[in-house]
Amino acid sequence: MRRPWRIAVVGGGITGLAAAVRLRDRAPAGTDITVYEQSGLLGGKLRTGSLAGSTVEFGAESFLMRDPAGGESAAVTLVRRLGLTDGIVHPTVGQAALALDGRLRPIPGGTLVGVPGDLAQVTTVAEPTAAADVDAGRPLLGPDEDVPVGALVRQRFGDQVVDRLVDPMLGGVYAGRADDLSLVTTMPALARAARTAHTLTGAVRAAQAAAPRAPGAPVFGTLAGGLSRLVDAAATASGATVRRNATVRELTPVAGGWRLTVGPTRDPEHVEVDAVVLAVPARPAARLLAGPAPQVAGTVGGLDYASVALVTLALPEPELPALSGFLVPGTEGLLIKAATFFTTKWGHLRRPDGVALVRASVGRYGEERQLQLPDAELVDTVHRELSEVLGAKLPTPLAGHVQRWGGALPQYTPGHLDRVAAARSALRSAYPTLALAGAGYDGVGIPVCVRSGGTAAEEIISALEGSAR
Fold first, then answer.
1. The Amine oxidase domain covers which part of the protein (predicted)?
2. Looking at the predicted structure, is the pLDDT value of residue 295 above 50?
């Protein structure tokens, strides 16, 4: 009788945990699943904490409710699988603003991550060069072409649309620059439309039409009580053995599977398994792949990351606008790149005593030096800049918290998805029982990471079933 499968999931973020849940649901009964997490905490960039007596997210804040095709997102599917659907809450204030020329201006509607389908709608924040978006008788992109978002939008709409709208929108998600980020990876719907449309406004409208949204349907959701509930529930539902503070230092192919070297170099532990889901960021993944698959390691290890800090302030009865928050273009010269008025945006967090939570994101790709400020200086700078943007000095914070996320956000340069596809193909040919998963390959956001983990789990199951036959 064949012994049960033994599967290692390296990485205890939401990607790895989603993979573990899928393995538990789909693998044969008795499958042994172990999650190895280098730190003492599960969840990766999902981390719920407390500040001045309020629940607050020190990492990811929410998830998309729908997938690009219009169905429920992978995050919602996981929430449903874990029995947490009743805990989903939505923003009560959705309008956000741009900090421009010393004041807040509402973000124009009708855009696709800041790229307008109707130039008249963005004239309140930028002056587009409409004459440049001409029909030259051919699609904007070739069949396999990928370009930086900024290059395409600058060519068609001019600098202001990029600098004052698209760049801050992308920067709020990736902490990167529109002039560096891949269109195909960061805006896949627009890239698909651009392969047939002859103008950028036409491509935006086509992309929007391809993914219609019901009027009034919520775009984002989170969990009352915090997203760490999702982490805890996934860890439990997976039935996996969870090993915290367990660094996997080496992966070695052996007959029938893999040997993991775990723990300190002076006293390593060796564990043999049938398959591995590698759900860690690209650089640590590259280190583990350097022995068995050096070419793949070179490709994976070339991905760069941006570091950010999230500074949260608890303010006694501040006067805040009726906005969910605001974005800051890099041209404004502020340390803050985005801010969220948590207790305004999320009605379930409002307090009867008027204490408000405001969270600012600090750090753009290539500007990591700014993050070297001590916590107290970051808090003071954020407090001062928030006051400047709002036009009135905010009250002294009751409490502040700084969460630093080093190397948190992947920077996808043009050709990223092709490089990832080639790396996965090479790995699949050589080692079908080793699968890559995570934001470093498939994109940022909780739904993308959940889907990535689930896909990797399915690949492992298929490979093990094939070897059993």
1. 14-461
2. yes
Residue 99 lies in a domain: no
Residue 210 identity: A
Q: In the predicted model, what is the mean pLDDT of residues 60-87?
A: 94
Prediction pTM value: 0.95
Give every CB contact of residue 114 below 8 A, 6+ residues apart in sequence.
Answer: 161, 165, 166, 167, 168, 169, 170
Q: How confident is the model at residue 1 (pLDDT cuts 50, 70, 90)?
A: very low
Judging by beta carbons within 10 Å of its beta carbon (0-12, 13-18, 19+), is residue 327 exposed, middle or buried? Answer: buried
Q: Is residue 80 part of a domain?
A: no
List, for residues 7-19, the tens digit of each pLDDT value: 999 999 999 999 9
Task: Give the model's pLDDT for residue 469.
Answer: 57
Per-residue burial over 176-202, b if 16 or more Cβ lie within 10 Å, else e, is: bbbbbbbbbbbbebbbbbbeebebbbb
pLDDT recorded at residue 127: 92
* Burial environment of residue 287 by CB neighbours within 10 A (0 to 12, 13 to 18, 19 or more): middle
- Tell whether 417 and 298 lie within a shared domain: yes
In a domain, 317, yes or no: yes
Residues 294 and 333 in one domain: no
- Quote the CA–CA distance of 221 and 358 in Å, as a whole number: 18
State how far the Cα of 407 lies from the Cα of 46, in Å rounded to an integer: 15
- Burial group, residue 104, by CB count within 10 angstroms (0-12, 13-18, 19+): middle
Q: Token pair for residue 61?
A: 């804040």
Among residues 203, 207, 206, 200, which one has the least CA distance to residue 134? Answer: 200
- Using alpha carbons, select from 367, 381, 428 the residue that is nearest to residue 180: 367
For 255-322, give the secondary structure using H, E and C: CCEEEEEECCCCCCEEEEECEEEECCCHHHHHHHHCCCCHHHHHHHCCCEEEEEEEEEEEEECCCCCC
Q: What is the mean pLDDT of residues 240-257?
A: 96
Domain that holds residue 398: 48-67+89-93+304-411
Which of 299, 265, 259, 270 lies closest to 283 in space, CA to CA? Answer: 299
CA distances from 398 to 66, 248, 296, 314 (A): 37, 41, 49, 5
DSSP 457: H
Could you tell me the two tokens for 403?
């969460």
* SS3 call for 116: strand
Token pair in block for residue 447: 């739904």
Q: Which residue do the tokens 């303010």 mark?
A: 315
Assess if residue 271 is contained within a domain: yes
